[in-house]
Amino acid sequence: MDLTTAENTAETTPASTAAAASSDAPLKVAVILASNREGRFAPVVADWFRSRTDAHPGIETDLVDVAGLDLPTALSYRPGSDDRVLLAEVSARLAAADAFVVITPEYNHSYPAPLKNLIDWHRAEWQAKPVAFVSYGGVSGGLRAVEHLRQVFAELHTVSIRDTVSFHNAGALFDDEGRHRDPAGPDAAAKTLLDQLVWWGRALRDAKEVRPYGD
Predict the structure, then answer these.
(1) Which SS3 state, helix, strand or coil, does residue 89 take?
(2) How many CA atoms within 13 Å lie on the side-chain side of 30?
(3) Could you give the CA distance from residue 38 to residue 56 in angstroms, rounded to a whole number?
(4) For the segment 104-153, what is each residue's pLDDT rounded down to a tens digit?
């Protein structure tokens, strides 16, 4: 190795090491629980899904439950001090996430209003990150809510994952302990969803290390 090569190696190795460390870091996934309806089935689905993320290498989850947020419903470019306090914690959690999974029911052919409120209070926090969907409901399995959400997240420069997990007639699929009665199909669907989410999450995170989104 000549001196020039040695100097170049010395200059580039720390950056390469840092990039590799960033690429190998666990993917931070905000799991958003979209329902606040009384008697909701959402926690059963969320517990099932998070048991699958716990078994997936390279993922750290943060459960963001809209029922506990109490966000203001009147949107403002200059929220008051009380509203800023309500927004501060959840905004920081969304900003820290590398990727999102939305767990949503279907209300009247669409998704719950508290989820739209959470989405609309934020913009940069969603951008250039992947979002995946787990839905549940009656005959449709919540898929109409997912199709509406894809349009909304596309407007926010968020990459939606193609494959979903959906539970049709969800209440009949789980026992009293929250265990799925026939888990093979949902387990396979969850693995596919998570594999795609991790690929996109790492790819976009690495890309933003090289060039911030929008530059």
Answers:
(1) helix
(2) 22
(3) 31
(4) 999 999 999 999 999 999 999 999 999 999 999 999 999 999 999 999 99
Over residues 189-209, the pLDDT tens digits come to: 999 999 999 999 999 999 999
Query: Distance between CA atoms of 47 and 130, rounded to whole angstroms?
Result: 21
**22 is written with which tokens?**
């960033």
Determine the Cα angle at 204 with ends 59 and 103, to 5°.
50
Q: Among residues 59, 111, 118, which one has the least CA distance to residue 94? A: 118
Report residue 97 as tokens: 């996430």
Task: Tell me if 125 sits within 8 A of 92, measured CB to CB.
Answer: no
* Phi/psi at 62 (5° precision): -130, 115
Is it the case that residue 16 has pLDDT exceeding 60? Answer: no
Supply φ then ψ for residue 202, to 5 degrees: -70, -40
pTM here is 0.88
Whole-number Cα distances in Å, 63 to 9, 46, 158, 206: 42, 9, 19, 24
Sign, Cα dihedral of 29, 202, 52, 112: positive
Tokens, residue 64: 């963001």
Other CB atoms closer than 10 Å to residue 18's CB: what's the count?
11
Is-contact 201 130, C-beta < 8 A?
A: yes
32/58 Cα distance (integer angstroms): 19
